[in-house]
Amino acid sequence: MGWLIDTSLWIAVERGALGAADIHAITRQEPVYLSPVNVAEIRFGLDLLRPGLQKQRATAMFRRLRRKSQLRITVETGETFGILCAKLKKAGRDPYVRVNDLWLAAQAIQRDFRLLTSNARDFADIQGLQMVVLNAR
Prior knowledge:
The protein has 137 residues and is of the alpha/beta class. It has one domain (3-133): Rossmann fold (3-Layer(aba) Sandwich), CATH 3.40.50.1010. Helices cover 55% and strands 9% of the residues. The chain has helices at 7-15, 20-27, 36-48, 53-65, 75-90, 99-111, 120-123, and strands spanning 3-5, 32-33, 114-117, 130-133. A four-stranded parallel sheet has the order 2-1-3-4. Helix 5 crosses helix 6 (99-111).
């Protein structure tokens, strides 16, 4: 078993709102992975920052984050993603407003991993997802 961590928690740790020990208390000795989705979301935010101290800190965080073990998005991930989107669409919900969350969920479901998030609402209606919620301060 392994863990995927939602981007909001990676950011909360870097900002000091959560400690790495808070994450470790839940994940224990199980492997924790970074998703290309996390990289994309953090890079997006980084590129919107103006030059200065905050951008320097964010850039350093981004470099540290890229050293984490990464999961690949595979053909099977794409298939799982498509199934999730279709289920949401059939249930009357628009899957495209949450595309990044659905990619994270697809990776977790495909690999039978748990997803650790502080945003339970973003993932609550995704069937088959093993989600654990950690409230960021």
